[in-house]
Design a protein that fits this description.
Mean pLDDT: 94
Shape: globular
Strand content: 15-25%
Largest sheet: 6 strands, antiparallel
Low-confidence stretches: 1-23
Radius of gyration: 28 Å
Number of strands: 39
Helix content: 10-25%
C-alpha cells in the first residue's frame, strides 16, 4: 500500500470518527420495536402479571419484588399487539384467562405444576402443566462446527401436543433508546404458545411478537462463491472470469479472512486472526478490486473475527485510538467490547464504514469465542448480529448480515452461517432436516458450507449431491477449507460430476424469480423451507420424513443424501408425499400423493416435485444476473388441476417498490393467463417473453413445441401493462407411459443381461401394472433395481 493511499484512508477514517454521533448512529431502537402492551391485555396481581398477546399467546411474569419488565428483549420486540377477545376471572390470589383457543389458570404464586396450567380447545385439545419436560419438535442450533452427523436441536415453538413455553427470563434487554439493558435478578418471564397443531398461526404469532424476518436483497438468492484461500485480486477476478466462461453464474463473492493482514502482522502484536486492514501484497487497490466484482454483477462480503480488538498495526488504529481517548503513540491495544457504546460507535464508523465506501456490501461475522461479556446475560454474538444489522440498514434499506444463530429472535438478522461443515455423508444427511426444522423457531435463511469445509475424504458423488441440496436450500454457498485438495470448482471433478454440478448451479440462478417471491412471502411470515408437518400437521407420516420438505408454495424436495447403489447407479430418497399429485420438474414423472415412495435418480438429478396446478416461474436459461429482474421467463406448469402463482419483484435497494404479476392456469378451459402487472411497473421490463412449459403430453392435434416425451411449450410475448393469455386446443395429458424410463434404467443397470431381458419382456407387456409388478418379483434382479422399476411402474401414466 502506498503512503498516499494510507494517508487517504486515514483521512477517511478520521472523517468517519466525526460521524459517530450522526443520525446514522448504530445505537437506536430496532424498527417496529414497541414493547409495552395495551393495558386492556394486562391483568396484574401482587407478584404477578399476565398479558394476553394473542388468542394462543400468553405472557406470564412472577417476581418477588412485585416489579415487571416493559423493555424489549432479544426475543420480544413488540407487545402492543391487537387484544383478542378474552375473559378474565380472578380466582383467589390468581387468575383464569380464556380465549377462543386456550385457557390459562395461574395461582399467582411461584410457578408450579399445580398452579400454572394451560389447556387448548378443539380437535387438538390438550393440557400442559408447568415443569413438564419439553416435547417440542425442535428448533435449530448455534453452529454445526465439528458436527459429523446429527446434533441436538435447541428449543422450537411447535409441538404435536400443541403447547410450548419459551422462557425469556435470562435474555438481555434493550432500553428505549436502543442501548443494552440487563434484567433484575429473580424475576420470571415466560411466553406460552398454545395454538394446537395450527403451526402456521403459532409462527405468525411469534413473528408478531419478535419482529418480522429480514427481507433479503435479490442478489443474495443466487450462488455464492466462498473459499478459505489467500486470493490475490488478479487470481480472484480470473476465477470469476473462468466461471463466466463456463456459464457458471455467481452473485456473491465471499472473501475469507486472508483479505486482511495475516502473515504480515508483526510478531509483537500476536496472530492475524482479527484484522481490518487490507493485505497490500494480495489486494493493493481494494476499491478497484471491489469495483470489478460489482461490474461483473456480484456483491461482496468480507470475513470478520473481531475478538482480538484493534491493535496498533491496523491502518485504522490512530483514528480508533483517538475515538477511544487513547494516545496512538502508546500502541495500547483496544479490546473488543461491544458493551461499551463508545467502542461500538467507533467499531462501525472507523473500522467498517470506510471499507463499505470502498465497495464492501455486507459482513460475514464469524464469531466463535463464547457467549459472555462484561454484562451479565449479554451474548456478544447477539450484539454483533443486532448492531451490524442496524448499521447495514442505516440508509433505510432492509439490511444484510451473515452470522451465526444466537437464539430466539435471530430470524430478524438475515442470513445464518451454520459453521464449518465436516466433509461426510453423515454431515450432508443431517443438513436437510436441520434446515427445515429451523422453521419451527422462524429461522428461515440458513447458509451451509455446501460441499463440506473440513476433514473427510474426497468423494465426487458426495460433493455433487451436496451441491444439488444447496440449490434447494435457502442460501447456496459453496465453501472449502484452506486445503488445496478440498475444492468446489466444477472443473476440478470428473465429467459426470462436473456436468451435474454445472447444471445445478445454473438452475439455482433460474430459480431466483421464484425464490425472491418466496423471500417476500417469508418476510410476511412463511419460511421458504418448512417440514412437511407444517403442511399436514395431523398426518403421522409427515413427522417421519424429516429430510423431505416444502420449498416455497409450489415444490416438495427430497434430496439424495446417501451413496448410489452400484447395481443401478441410482441414488435413493425415501419420501412421503402429501395428498394430491406431484410431478418431477426434471423428469416429468407424476406421482400420486398421500403415500410413501422411493425416488431413484442418477447423479444428474434430484427429486423436485411440483404440486398439481403448480406454477413455477424460472428465468430463461440465459438470464443469469441475479441483480436484475428478467426479460424472459420459462414457466413450468403441472396441469392436472387449476392453479395460480403471484410473482413478486422489486427494484434493487428498494424493497417497497414491489410489482406483482399473477400467473394462472385454468384446467377447465385449458387457458394460461399472464395478468397485467400491478404496483410499481418501473421495477420490471415493459414487455417480456414467456415460454410456458407444461409437464404433460399435448392434446392430439395441438401445434406446440414438444420438448420430449414429458413436456411441451408455448411461447407468448406480453406487455407488462396489459398481460396476455394462451389457450390450448385441448387438455394436456398428465402422466407418462413408463416404458421408456424403465428401459433406460434397465439399460444402465450393472447386472446380468439375461435377467434384464427377462425383466424387460414382462414389463413391456400391455398387462395391468399390478400384475407386472407382482411378476417382477420372480426375476432375479437385485432389490435396489427392482425398487427403481417399481417406482416407475407405480407412477401416474395414461394406461394401466
Amino acid at each position: 500500500m502506498t503512503d498516499q493511499t494510507t494517508q487517504a484512508d486515514a483521512a477517511s477514517q478520521t472523517d468517519a470518527t466525526d460521524q459517530t454521533t450522526a443520525t446514522a448512529d448504530v445505537i437506536r431502537p430496532f424498527p417496529g420495536s414497541a414493547p409495552r402492551a395495551d393495558p386492556a391485555a394486562v391483568t396484574t396481581g401482587e407478584h404477578w402479571r399476565v398479558t394476553v398477546l394473542g388468542d394462543g399467546l400468553f405472557r406470564v411474569e412472577w417476581s418477588e419484588d412485585g416489579g415487571f419488565e416493559d423493555r424489549a428483549s432479544t426475543f420480544t420486540l413488540r407487545r402492543d399487539l391487537p387484544v383478542p377477545e378474552h375473559t378474565v376471572v380472578r380466582v383467589g390470589s390468581g387468575v383464569e384467562v380464556t380465549t377462543a383457543r386456550a385457557r390459562l389458570r395461574y395461582d399467582g404464586q411461584a410457578f408450579s405444576p399445580g398452579g400454572f396450567v394451560v389447556e387448548t380447545f378443539g380437535p387438538d385439545a390438550n393440557r400442559w402443566r408447568w415443569g413438564q419436560p419439553a416435547r417440542d419438535l425442535g428448533g435449530t442450533g448455534r453452529t454445526l462446527d465439528d458436527v459429523d452427523g446429527r446434533m441436538p436441536f435447541e428449543q422450537g415453538l411447535l409441538a404435536r401436543d400443541g403447547i410450548t413455553v419459551l422462557d425469556d427470563s435470562e435474555s438481555f434487554l434493550f432500553e428505549d433508546d436502543g442501548w443494552i439493558g440487563t434484567r433484575v435478578p429473580g424475576r420470571r418471564d415466560v411466553t406460552v404458545f398454545a395454538h394446537g397443531r395450527d403451526y402456521t398461526a403459532a409462527i405468525q404469532a411469534y413473528y408478531a411478537l419478535s419482529g418480522a424476518p429480514s427481507l433479503l436483497p435479490r442478489w443474495a438468492l443466487g450462488n455464492w462463491w466462498s473459499r478459505y484461500h489467500p486470493y490475490s485480486d488478479t487470481e480472484y477476478l480470473a476465477l470469476m472470469d473462468r466461471f463466466a466462461e463456463e456459464s457458471l453464474p455467481f452473485s456473491v463473492a465471499v472473501i475469507d479472512m486472508d483479505w486482511h493482514r495475516v502473515d504480515s502482522v508483526p510478531e509483537r502484536f500476536g496472530n492475524g486472526w482479527t484484522g481490518y486492514s487490507w493485505e497490500p501484497e494480495l489486494i493493493p487497490d481494494p476499491a478497484a478490486f471491489l469495483g470489478e466484482l460489482h461490474r461483473r454483477g456480484m456483491r461482496t462480503t468480507l470475513n470478520l473475527h473481531p475478538a482480538d480488538g484493534v491493535r496498533a498495526f491496523e491502518d485504522a488504529y490512530p483514528a480508533m485510538a483517538e475515538a477511544m481517548g487513547i494516545d496512538p503513540a502508546t500502541e495500547t491495544p483496544i479490546p473488543f467490547d461491544p458493551t461499551d457504546p463508545t467502542f461500538l460507535r467507533a467499531y462501525f464508523a472507523v473500522l467498517h464504514r470506510p471499507l463499505e465506501e470502498q465497495g464492501v456490501d455486507f459482513w460475514w461475522i464469524d464469531w466463535q469465542q463464547g457467549r459472555t461479556t462484561s454484562l451479565p446475560g449479554v451474548d456478544p454474538l447477539w450484539l454483533l448480529n443486532h448492531f451490524h444489522h442496524l448499521d447495514s440498514a442505516r440508509d433505510g434499506g432492509a439490511g444484510m448480515t451473515f452470522s451465526r444463530y444466537a437464539g430466539p429472535g435471530s430470524h430478524r438478522y438475515a442470513v445464518g452461517f451454520s459453521g464449518d461443515a465436516v466433509v461426510s455423508w453423515a454431515s450432508l444427511a443431517f443438513q436437510p432436516e436441520f434446515t427445515a426444522t429451523a422453521a419451527n423457531i422462524g429461522y428461515g435463511w440458513w447458509s451451509h458450507d455446501v460441499g463440506g469445509h473440513t476433514r473427510g475424504v474426497r468423494d465426487d458423488e458426495l460433493a455433487t449431491r451436496w451441491v444439488q441440496f444447496g440449490v434447494f436450500s435457502p442460501i447456496m454457498r459453496l465453501h472449502s477449507a484452506n486445503n488445496p485438495f478440498i475444492r468446489k470448482e466444477p472443473w476440478a471433478f470428473p465429467a459426470e460430476a462436473r456436468a451435474a454440478m454445472g447444471d445445478a448451479l445454473r438452475f439455482r440462478h433460474r430459480l431466483v424469480p421464484y425464490l425472491h417471491t418466496m423471500n417476500h412471502r417469508a418476510a410476511a411470515g412463511t419460511p421458504l423451507v418448512r417440514p412437511l408437518y407444517h403442511l399436514e400437521p395431523h398426518r403421522d407420516e409427515a413427522y417421519r420424513a424429516p429430510n423431505v420438505y416444502a420449498f416455497g408454495s409450489e415444490l416438495v424436495v427430497a434430496p439424495i443424501v446417501e451413496p448410489r447403489d452400484p447395481s443401478t447407479l441410482l441414488g435413493r430418497a425415501r419420501a412421503w408425499l402429501p395428498p394430491g399429485s406431484w410431478t418431477d420438474v426434471f423428469t416429468g414423472t407424476t406421482y400420486a400423493g398421500d403415500r410413501w415412495v422411493d425416488l431413484h435418480r442418477g447423479l444428474d438429478g434430484v427429486p423436485v416435485l411440483l404440486r398439481a396446478g403448480g406454477v413455477l416461474p424460472l428465468a430463461a436459461g440465459d438470464e443469469v444476473d441475479a441483480t436484475v429482474n428478467p426479460t424472459s421467463f420459462e414457466v413450468l406448469v403441472a396441469p392436472g388441476t387449476s392453479g395460480s402463482f403471484t410473482l413478486v419483484e422489486d427494484r434493487e435497494g428498494d424493497p417497497a417498490s414491489t410489482c406483482t404479476t399473477r400467473l394462472s392456469w385454468d384446467a377447465d378451459t385449458a387457458t394460461f393467463r399472464i395478468d397485467a402487472a400491478e404496483g410499481d411497473r418501473t421495477a420490471v421490463p415493459t414487455a417480456r417473453h414467456w415460454r410456458v412449459t407444461f409437464l404433460a403430453a399435448p392434446a392430439p392435434g395441438q401445434h406446440v413445441d414438444v420438448q420430449g416425451h414429458d413436456r411441451f411449450s408455448v411461447d407468448v410475448t406480453a406487455d407488462t401493462a396489459t398481460g396476455a393469455s394462451v389457450t390450448l386446443a385441448g387438455t394436456p395429458t398428465v402422466g407418462l407411459d413408463a416404458r421408456d424410463a424403465v428401459r433406460q434404467v434397465l439399460e444402465r443397470a450393472q447386472v446380468g443381461n439375461p435377467e434384464k431381458l427377462e425383466a424387460w419382456t414382462l414389463l413391456a407387456r400391455d398387462t395391468p401394472r399390478a400384475d407386472r409388478i407382482a411378476e417382477l418379483e420372480t426375476v432375479g434382479l437385485p432389490d435396489p433395481l427392482r425398487a427403481a422399476l417399481v417406482e416407475l411402474l407405480g407412477s401416474v401414466h395414461p394406461t394401466a
